[in-house]
Design goal:
Pfam families: FGGY_C, FGGY_N. One of its GO terms (biological process) is D-xylose metabolic process. GO terms for molecular function: kinase activity; phosphotransferase activity, alcohol group as acceptor. Keywords: Carbohydrate metabolism, Kinase, Transferase, Xylose metabolism. Belongs to the FGGY kinase family. This protein folds into 2 domains: 239 residues, ATPase, nucleotide binding domain (Nucleotidyltransferase, domain 5, 2-Layer Sandwich), CATH 3.30.420; 207 residues, Nucleotidyltransferase, domain 5 (2-Layer Sandwich). It is built from 17 helices and 24 strands. By secondary structure, it is of the alpha+beta class.
Length: 512
């Protein structure tokens, strides 16, 4: 007899992951497909949407190949907010523009702020315009690729792209829509037509649904391609970080999810809507919930970049060297702004800085400094969340970076916060599977994914990290002018020559 399972697939920045999960929450099988993003110009990060569906098909077929499992529902999630524009027949018109790591829309942000008013955008949309805002990137395409934009009729993100391929339904989840600033009104939980019509008058914005609601069923064509049974329900899905939060049960008021991945994401669930000019106020993944969220533009991307520079040693070896380096990385301090920075500084022209370097420093010191830099960035976000009215009562960690223990320990040491480490940290694909399971079974995430351990800060390091944090904050202020000048120089140098070929260093791998 075949085991009844749900299929969860997540399309991430550096890989796609799929899981088959049974009714008890046990992972029957999992699989991963690595991929690369394209960085054709400084500040541009794109991806071909065909890869998303091809990898879904490949994952589905591999997971179902043994023939011992029956899929009863499908869950999807993906990085976001992204901007994939297609014509009316769902044919992509250009590569998808990715989330806040793509910083091309600076001019559009300034124009839209002048046009609609910064305070009014924050009040209506929940978030200030930043590199994270999908609506500003839609405006960039309209401004810079007008002939292409005249043919654009539909807007997709990775999760909704999988849904349309699987079911034929054009739909987007409420949470993803709330990151399409300034196209969405968080108060009415609907598209805001007056602004949408000015930014994209011919774009037919998708109908909205909640992430766990059934979007449609697998068509005969999709079933044949992906090896799935036809007629199986498919949920609407959502952005990966919010699916990660679902996967570890970080949905209660006061919870803060830390997602350790290529980037670092923070999602705090609040009792009532909050806005902050330095963070993202969004609707949650579950009906009736609200979040105050933030994100570092790079975290695992830096550790992957360093690993490649070091000749690709195993991550356990790098972690051993970093642990031997000790707190403070023997006098090194890094700013992790290697792709600009999202929250809380919202500075697309920020750049990475490594201060205190001498010829005596080692690979372990540099790797330790990178792990500590993400911890310092998390602390900055936590302080900003609480200053904005958040009330953080519990921190839950998830993602590939939770493996090995050192990274989560450093973040706890730097922030002074306990972190709950659940039994299953595979992340967004597991959260998507759970939402799909709820359409068929009576399940709870507490039963599916109980707590495994608590990471506790080492109080003897508090004074050292307090001092380092003060220097971290000062280093950004003191180096900002130079970083911005170098960012401008990078743009000028590129304009003088051909586009840079993407080798994607810094996007592969997440340190455990």
């Amino acid at each position: 007899m075949k085991v009844a399972t749900v299929l969860g697939v997540d399309i991430g920045t550096s890989s796609s992951k799929g899981v088959l999960v049974d009714a008890a929450g046990r992972v029957v099988r999992s699989a991963t497909r690595s991929h690369e993003v394209s960085r054709p110009r400084p500040g541009w990060v794109e991806m071909d949407a065909d890869v998303w569906w091809q990898e879904f098909v490949s994952l589905s077929r591999e997971l179902l190949a043994p023939g011992d499992a029956e899929v009863v529902a499908v869950g999807v999630s993906g990085m976001g907010p992204c901007v994939l524009l297609t014509d009316a027949a769902n044919v992509p018109l250009r590569p998808a523009i990715l989330y806040g790591v793509d910083t091309r829309s600076t001019a559009q942000i300034a124009r839209l702020n002048d046009q609609f008013g910064e305070e009014e955008i924050l009040r209506r949309c929940g978030s200030a315009l930043s590199s994270q805002a999908a609506g500003a990137k839609v405006a960039w395409v309209a401004d810079n690729e007008p002939e292409l934009f005249r043919r654009a009729r539909r807007l997709f993100m990775p999760s909704s792209w999988l849904v349309v391929q699987l079911t034929g339904r054009y739909v987007l989840d409420q949470h993803s829509a709330s990151q399409c600033t300034p196209l969405y009104d968080t108060r009415s939980e609907d598209w805001y037509a007056p602004w949408a019509e000015q930014i994209a008058p011919d774009l037919v914005l998708p109908p909205l649904s909640w992430p766990g609601e059934v979007a449609g069923v697998v068509t005969a064509h999709a079933a044949a391609e992906a090896g799935l049974p036809p007629g199986v329900p498919v949920i609407t899905g959502t952005i990966d970080a919010w699916s990660e939060a679902i996967s570890v049960g970080a949905q209660g008021v006061g919870d803060l999810m830390l997602m350790y991945g290529t980037t670092m994401f923070l999602v705090h669930t609040v009792a009532s809507p909050l806005t902050s000019p330095s963070l993202w106020g969004t609707v949650g993944a579950l009906p009736g919930t609200r979040n105050l969220a933030g994100g570092l533009a790079t975290s695992g991307a830096i550790t992957g970049w360093l690993r490649e520079l070091f000749g690709s040693p195993d991550y356990p070896e790098l972690l051993r060297l970093a642990e031997a380096s000790g707190a403070g990385a023997r006098g090194l301090l890094m700013l992790p702004y290697f792709a600009g920075e999202r929250t809380p500084i919202l500075d697309p022209d920020a750049r990475g800085v490594l201060a205190g370097l001498t010829v005596s420093h080692t690979r372990g010191d540099l790797y330790r400094a990178a792990l500590e830099a993400t911890g310092l960035g998390v602390r900055h976000n936590i302080e900003t969340i609480e200053a904005g009215g958040g009330d953080i009562r519990r921190v839950v960690a998830v993602g590939g970076g939770t493996q090995g223990g050192l990274w989560t320990q450093i973040v706890s040491d730097v922030t002074g916060r306990d972190q709950v480490i659940p039994s299953q940290t595979i992340g967004a694909s597991y959260g998507a599977a759970f939402l799909a399971a709820r359409t068929e079974w009576d399940v709870s995430i507490e039963t599916w994914n109980p707590v495994k351990e608590i990471r506790t800060p080492r109080r003897e390091l508090a004074a050292d990290y307090d001092e380092l944090y003060g220097l971290y904050r000062e280093l950004y202020t003191s180096s900002k002018r130079v970083a911005h000048a170098l960012a401008a120089r990078q743009v000028r140098l590129l304009a003088a020559g051909p586009p840079v070929a993407s080798d994607n260093r810094g996007t592969e791998g997440v340190a455990p």
